[in-house]
Write a structure and sequence with these properties.
It contains 4 helices and 2 strands. It is mainly α and 138 residues long. Strands 1-2 form a two-stranded antiparallel ribbon. The two termini are 28 Å apart.
């Protein structure tokens, strides 16, 4: 992200990207709960967020003379490049080799969705405040 976005939105733009990816992983796990041999994938949101913060602070410190990416979908840009996924270890694996714990995934999905909505609401209020400050949101 650019320096302007960093100053306006702080860590919340990276948090939104990471939360979206985490929700997708949970949805994939839930969708494959009955697939024999499916290994549930997980992402450590806290670890990914910490990596994104470190990447952001180091890129701001030494960004002079370097190319920057404006879109997190570009190579090497944003929080998406810091995502590390792994496989969950089930409490009681199924006989068919599936490692999805449907109850944990549903609870986790609900918690992650609330976090995503909270971040989205914060960003929305931030944009509204900026619009008002610029005189376009009367």
């Amino acid at each position: 992200m650019s320096i302007i976005n960093d100053r306006l939105f702080g860590i919340h733009d990276d948090a939104l990207i990471l939360q979206e990816r985490n929700l997708k992983l949970r949805a994939e796990n839930i969708a494959n709960a009955d697939t024999p041999g499916y290994k549930a994938r997980v992402m450590s949101f806290d670890q990914a967020m910490e990596t994104a913060l470190q990447t952001k602070s180091s890129s701001q410190a030494g960004s002079a003379g370097r190319l920057t990416t404006e879109d997190p979908r570009q190579m090497g840009g944003g929080a998406s490049s810091s995502i590390r996924e792994g496989f969950s270890v089930p409490d009681a694996p199924a006989l068919d080799g599936n490692t999805v714990d449907l109850d944990k995934e549903r609870v986790g999905f609900t918690e992650d969705a609330m976090g995503y909505q909270t971040t989205l609401s914060f960003l929305n209020s931030r944009v509204s405040g900026i619009k008002k400050a610029l005189g376009g949101g009367q």
